[in-house]
Design brief:
With about 190 residues, this protein is an alpha/beta fold. Helix content is about 30%, strand content about 25%. The strands form 2 sheets. It has an 8-stranded mixed beta sheet. Strand 3 and strand 4 form a beta hairpin.
C-alpha cells in the first residue's frame, strides 16, 4: 500500500511539471529559487483568463524584484501568452502612504507579483477588480492575495489559491490549476 501511495505522489509531481509547462519548469537542480517562483508565475498566466482584458497586453507588475528575479523575468518580457504580450513592469519603491496614491501606483497592473523582498512595501487596502495578486510567502490572513507561493517544511514550493480574492479580481482560473493548489479558501483542498 505504501509503495502505491509513493508511486501516486511521484506521478502527481510529474503531472504538475507537465501541466505547468516543462519548458519553464525543467526541474533542474541548478534552478534558482527566484527562477522557479517566476516560472510558477509565468505558468499561472497560461491557466488564468482576464475576461475584461483586451487581446493586446497583460501588465505583470513586480514589486521588490532583486537581481536574480529580474534575470528570471527577462525572458518573459514581451513574450506572447494567450494572444497577449506580457509587459513586465518593475515597481522598486512605493513611498505613498495616501491610499488613493497607492491605488493609482498599481492601477495599470493586471497581475501583481510581490516577491519576499517586496513584502514590506505598502499595497492598497483593497485591490481594484481586474488585478490579481500573487505573493511569495504571503500571510494566510491577507485576503487580497489570490495565489500564494509557499515554501513547505520539506523545502518544496507549493501554491495556495484564495477563491474569494480570485472572484474579486474577476478572473477565471482553469480547473486544472485549481486541482493542483495545495489548499484553498472557500473550497476543498
Amino acid at each position: 500500500m505504501g509503495q502505491v501511495k509513493a508511486i501516486g505522489q511521484s506521478l502527481l509531481r510529474w503531472g504538475l511539471l507537465l501541466i505547468l509547462g516543462g519548458d519553464c519548469l525543467a526541474a533542474s537542480a541548478q534552478a534558482s529559487e527566484a527562477g522557479l517562483r517566476v516560472a510558477f508565475v509565468y505558468n499561472f498566466i497560461k491557466f488564468i483568463e482576464w475576461p475584461a482584458l483586451p487581446d493586446s497586453e497583460l501588465s505583470l507588475c513586480v514589486l521588490g524584484a532583486e537581481d536574480e528575479t529580474r534575470s528570471a523575468l527577462a525572458p518573459i518580457d514581451n513574450k506572447v501568452q494567450q494572444k497577449r504580450s506580457i509587459q513586465v513592469i518593475y515597481i522598486d519603491h512605493v513611498n505613498e502612504t495616501n491610499e488613493p496614491n497607492l491605488t493609482q501606483t498599481f492601477s495599470h497592473c493586471e497581475l501583481l507579483y510581490v516577491t519576499e523582498a517586496g513584502a514590506a512595501m505598502p499595497l492598497p487596502q483593497s485591490l481594484q477588480p481586474g488585478m490579481l495578486l500573487v505573493m511569495d510567502e504571503a500571510s494566510p490572513t491577507d485576503e487580497r492575495v489570490g495565489i500564494a507561493l509557499m515554501r513547505t517544511s520539506d523545502n518544496r514550493i507549493e501554491f495556495q489559491i484564495n477563491e474569494p480574492a480570485i472572484n474579486h479580481a474577476g478572473v477565471k482560473i482553469s480547473s486544472q490549476l485549481l486541482r493542483l493548489a495545495k489548499k484553498r479558501q472557500g473550497g476543498r483542498g
